[in-house]
From TrEMBL, chains A, B:
Pfam families: LacI (PF00356), Peripla_BP_3 (PF13377)
Name assigned to this protein: Periplasmic binding protein/LacI transcriptional regulator
Keyword Magnesium: no
SMART domains named among the record's database cross-references: HTH_LACI
Top-level taxonomy: Bacteria, Pseudomonadati, Pseudomonadota, Alphaproteobacteria, Hyphomicrobiales
Molecular function per GO: DNA-binding transcription factor activity; transcription cis-regulatory region binding
Superkingdom: Bacteria
Cited PROSITE patterns: HTH_LACI_1, HTH_LACI_2
InterPro entries: HTH_LacI, LacI/GalR-like_sensor, Lambda_DNA-bd_dom_sf, Peripla_BP_I
Keywords: DNA-binding, Repressor, Transcription, Transcription regulation
Length: 352, 352
DNA sequence: TTGATTTATTGGAACGTTCCATTTAGTAGC
DNA sequence: GCTACTAAATGGAACGTTCCAATAAATCAA
């Protein structure tokens, strides 16, 4: 069985006593060949341990069946979820997604994109690394390859974007805190080189304005988007003269960090200080106390992105509509009312 | 710029006024071409927006520069870490790893492996899905493609394995619990269709035997390897007539679940009941209480697996030594001594 | 000057497939 | 028995590279 040199359709042809063209037809599941011939060929394929050479095929065929998925941080379950969502729909479309991780490194991203293109992918779904230069996708665009951005967008690009409604999510969360009676609010974590940051911060600010919280009572503490960053943010905030009583965090990791830091100081999250997260990762529900967070349905967005990509490939276009996914605030235990001014609050739905 | 039909080396050749062979040589960085000619060619490449067709190249070249990484569950940060470790070393070797997720589904795994082979990968690093049939890798083996298993092994396979020393890890953890004075121990989570399960359970059992804990005082509760599974395990264990006082959990997720369930019953993990996890994911350190766990260094194992693969490719072999990675127990706060029999314990290192 | 040697460049065949146009065999109509 | 058609199978060219052997140009030794 299985010679050293790998088998080709010619070997199969010889084995089955037909021509290479017939083998090719069988491989493609053409209805033109007689069933008996087909099964004879299929047996030969099995016997010689043949493996299809897609590279050779793509030389003649219009499009390949692989699409590339470029993710900025696979170790963040939030993005991993996104990838998994995409995979679900591609799988049922007979497309194989290859995932590559850029580890938030634009140089690495460049390499990965290049490699994916050379491999002849039919399309690209990208969650761009922080610090991606505006021109990074020019090559790809001029090559006419369909691309969609997921979760993140680039400042001035015309590439379609699939992302959650960050502004609204932040607005809802902030409004909730204000409704609970909080009057001194802080936004924790993130940094301004991310478009998402501005979107979320924008929602936070709008809610404050709308609901009559003055600028002097809102605070913004930038920081790493990690547990560690959250810890640092909380320390900073509580060191202030008139510290805030509630925080909207850039994401759940920051929120977990903040809660940790509260505990360390003997404060109880949700009682002594209200915390709201963003993304609603699986862990949020199981935390102690369970974290109130803005659910963005990343798997759903992944599916959406995959569908958009499928449609783009099918209609051979490189344009598509943006899709802003609905978000909703999942209220759990991490954000009770402001204890010190409980009486002042007209309070919408106020269990402690 | 950039015509519709994609540019080939012929287009570049015309543009630069040289032959296709010269262009090919430049592309490969051959030292044979005059520097001025080379830069002329490079300019042309830039001008026409050329993208290299690796499929065509692989038709003639011996080996491709992509290796496939097949992961059973990308949403588990533990495996994501593994992937990231591998990526680090491949990157510096000029190899592009494509990651594919099987979502613990053997059928999906089959598809993914097939696709990767068709793509002409140079090798495969696989963390096999639960329930993988013994024959699943026969095709690949007869094709002479180098494969290494990471983290998990298949019952009777000759494919090299890179994995942590599960037995020893479990032994260490169990011995630690016994040293703390616990006499009724339980093993939480996992199921017997995983080789890893038997390894870890084996370490647990050996420690119990060696240290004189009778079979009657040890308990095994199978369950999902998730938070949910951990919750269920704890409920089962505490419902018993003479419940255990300490648990070794199959992995950290199970441990988190168990701690959650303890809290729900008003019991304090680490004080009223000792919990040890396995894997030492990032979260373990930040939990409340911080989780004692067996650190396996998954990123390090990933790097190791990548190195082994590199060596296999280089020496054109399909054999390699197994590598069992060192583990160590990271003691934190989740496993104090048995309160009820504190006096009986000779106790090695016994802060509550 | 001539032949030998080195340096730079080139054309052609090959890689494993698909697709098209053609051939061959089989069936129906008359 | 002939033509007209359909169904099944086939050979050849093409896809975009790499590699090898061959050429052309430049340099050197005598």
């Amino acid at each position: 069985m299985a010679n050293r040199a790998k088998a080709t359709i010619f070997d199969i042809a010889r084995e089955a006593g037909v021509s290479k063209s017939t083998v090719s037809l069988v491989l493609q599941g053409s209805g033109l060949i007689r069933p008996e011939t087909a099964s004879k060929v299929r047996k030969a394929i099995e016997d010689v341990g043949y493996v299809y050479n897609r590279g050779a095929a793509n030389l003649r065929k219009a499009h390949s069946n692989v699409i590339g998925m470029v993710i900025n941080d696979l170790t963040n379950p939030f993005f991993a979820e996104l990838a998994v969502g995409m995979e679900r729909v591609f799988q049922s479309a007979g497309i194989v997604p290859f995932i590559a991780n850029t580890a938030e490194n634009p140089v690495r991203q460049e390499e990965v994109l290049k490699s994916l293109m050379e491999q002849g992918v039919a399309g690209l779904i990208v969650s761009p690394a922080r610090g991606t230069t505006p021109g990074a996708f020019r090559r790809i665009e001029t090559a006419g390859l369909p691309v969609v951005f997921a979760m993140r967008r680039l400042p001035e690009s015309r590439i379609p974007v699939i992302a959650p409604d960050n502004h609204r999510g932040a607005y809802l969360a902030t409004a909730h805190l204000i409704g609970k009676g909080h009057r001194r609010l802080v936004f924790f974590g993130g940094s301004s080189d991310l478009v998402v940051y501005h979107e979320r911060l924008g929602g936070f600010r709008e809610a404050c304005e709308t609901q009559g919280i003055s600028d002097r009572d809102t605070l913004v503490v930038e920081g790493e988007t990690s547990r560690r960053g959250g810890i640092a943010c909380l320390e900073t905030a509580l060191a202030m003269a008139e510290p805030p009583t509630a925080a909207l965090c850039f994401n759940d990791a920051v929120a977990f960090g903040a809660m940790l830091a509260l505990r360390k100081r003997g404060l109880e999250p949700g009682v002594d200080f209200a915390i709201v997260g963003f993304d609603d990762v699986a862990e949020a529900e199981h935390y102690m106390p369970a974290l109130t967070s803005v659910a963005v349905d990343s798997a759903g967005l992944g599916e959406r992105a995959a569908h958009v990509m499928l449609k783009m490939i099918q209609s051979r276009t490189t344009r598509a509509e943006d899709h802003i996914g609905a978000v909703n605030l999942v209220v759990r235990e991490s954000c009770g009312p402001d204890r010190r001014i409980r009486n002042r609050a007209a309070g919408s739905g106020g269990a402690a």
